Amino acid sequence: MTTAPTLLDTAFTLAGHDIPVLPLRAGKVPFGNCPACTANACGGRPNMKNPGPCQCPGVCHAWAAATTDPHILASPPWASAWRRAAAVAYHPGGAGLTVVDLDDAAAVAWARENLPATRTVPTTRGEHWIYQGTMRSVNAVRSGIDIKSTMAYARWLGPGTGSTAALPDTVRALAMNEPPTAHRAPQTLTAPLRGEQGECPHRTPAYLDRGIAMAEQRITEARSAVHATVYRTFLAVLSTHGRCGCLTETHTARLFTAAQAKGESPRHCTEAWTNALTTLGL
């Protein structure tokens, strides 16, 4: 009699197809940080394209720990994690994929009207629509719709049906329409402006643009202590540009994007930005 495949068997199969996998605990949540890695104290996350100094062998970095290495999957402490796991997850972005997570019947109906047909996988309440191509992950782009690609994980619920289509511009556009999570700032670069410190010193947008570009570069080039680097960079930007009204949501989005590309979550970005504002009394 043929026995059903275990979660680890499924993980091996997916890894063999270059799909990075990780175990999930009950409740569809990843295994938490070990004490050495709590709050990113280790300075980095393993198995990323640009890893930090973290040498933790555990499955404690959520999507960033996802791997296709069969030796890692079968070795301690991963082997123990699989025995305690409730499901298999995978990193869509690491496999070159984007998952449009449709959480209810209304979201599925919208997708059938507005998105090109692709591979679909049934879920408990809706469907996963899987496209070839990657983008940033965004939650709640519409009612009942999340996008999971880079820096995110999705449950493995089976291969689904249909042919995988190329990621359409319609899906990319959904991420552009998300509600802003950054500090809301004035929407103009008109000069001169008057802020708390008097007349705005930024006579042209070029000065501010150079400052934002340098801040993006500083975050991108961080090799350790990424969270601290992000906070210090946000603090520097706000100390120079935060009082005159020049910063817009476009500028903050650029900084958040750079930080998330280094592994920071949207929540951590928002917290770092808010803490910088509080420190400067803004």
- Coarse structural class: alpha+beta
Uncertain stretches: 178-198
How big a fraction of the residues is strand? 15-25%
Query: Averaged pLDDT, please?
Result: 82
C-alpha Rg, in Å?
A: 21 Å
Largest sheet: 6 strands, mixed
Number of E strands: 12
Helical segment count: 9
Q: What share of the residues lie within helices?
A: 25-40%
Instruction: Name the helix and strand elements from N-terminus to C-terminus, one letter apiece.
Output: HEEHHEEHEEEEEEHEEHHHH
- Shape label: globular
First-last Cα distance? 68 Å
Question: What's this model, at a glance?
Answer:
The protein has helices spanning 7-16, 70-74, 78-84, 105-114, 169-176, 205-220, 226-241, 249-261, 266-280, and strands at 21-25, 29-30, 87-90, 97-102, 119-122, 127-132, 138-142, 145-148, 154-155, 165-166, 194-195, 198-199.
Describe this structure in words.
The protein has helices spanning 7-16, 70-74, 78-84, 105-114, 169-176, 205-220, 226-241, 249-261, 266-280; strands spanning 21-25, 29-30, 87-90, 97-102, 119-122, 127-132, 138-142, 145-148, 154-155, 165-166, 194-195, 198-199. With 282 residues, the protein is an alpha+beta fold. Strands 4, 5, 6, 7, 8 and 10 form a six-stranded mixed beta sheet that branches. The protein is globular. The model is unreliable at 178-198 (pLDDT under 50).
